[in-house]
Design goal:
Strand content: 5-15%
Shape: globular
Helix content: 25-40%
């Protein structure tokens, strides 16, 4: 056959491109969309190092916070009488882009901390505002760590069909932290964004 002309090559290239659809972006929250950005709060940290430090202090009020198996889950520690995780849930409530309810907000936890987490009204198996997800690890097993908790939550409960806000529940948010502004920036930018606090160890 005769060699193809430049015009034919351009037409074939155009047709080939037309047959390959571009990748679809993740869904953006629209007015009335109850799903929005899903949230995962990583609460699987057993706090064993913290528990050992508390035990060594000998303070009865603090020692009472240590759970069987040497746990002292950071996100369950009371702050002004309120479990630390409730502060993060309050922040998520204030984010317009984030979905609300047990189909949109998930909290990971150690297997032997299940009862302690589900005892909180917000994480109750029925009627709670978020879904508790066990990482399957108890005191006799190594913890999966934040990455393991995240992957397990994505595969077992959350899925990969939406943007996801990931929060490390081992740390407490600042009272005036603008989580709404951060999420709005991240979704508008269309790329992964990370917020962290740089602590000056010299102080």
């Amino acid at each position: 056959p005769p060699p193809a002309t430049n015009s034919q090559n351009r037409n074939e290239c155009h047709q080939a491109k037309a047959l390959t659809p571009p990748p679809s972006p993740l869904p953006r929250r629209r007015s009335g969309d109850v799903a929005g950005v899903k949230t995962i709060i990583l609460g699987g940290d057993r706090g064993t190092a913290l528990a050992a430090e508390i035990k060594s202090s000998g303070d009865p009020a603090l020692v009472s916070l240590v759970k069987p198996g040497g746990r002292c889950d950071p996100c369950l520690l009371p702050v002004d009488g309120v479990p630390a995780i409730e502060y993060w849930l309050g922040c998520v409530d204030g984010v317009a882009e984030c979905g609300k309810g047990p189909a949109s907000v998930f909290v990971t936890h150690a297997a032997d901390a299940k009862d302690d987490f589900e005892r909180l009204p917000d994480l109750a198996p029925s009627g709670g505002r978020c879904t508790a997800v066990s990482n399957g690890a108890d005191s006799a097993m190594p913890t999966p760590g934040p990455a393991g908790d995240l992957l397990l939550a994505l595969e077992e409960a959350v899925g990969y069909d939406s943007h996801v806000l990931v929060i490390d529940g081992s740390f407490l948010c600042a009272p005036d932290y603008d989580l709404d502004g951060f999420v709005t920036h991240a979704v508008g930018r269309g790329k992964d964004c990370v917020a962290y606090l740089d602590v000056d160890q010299s102080e």
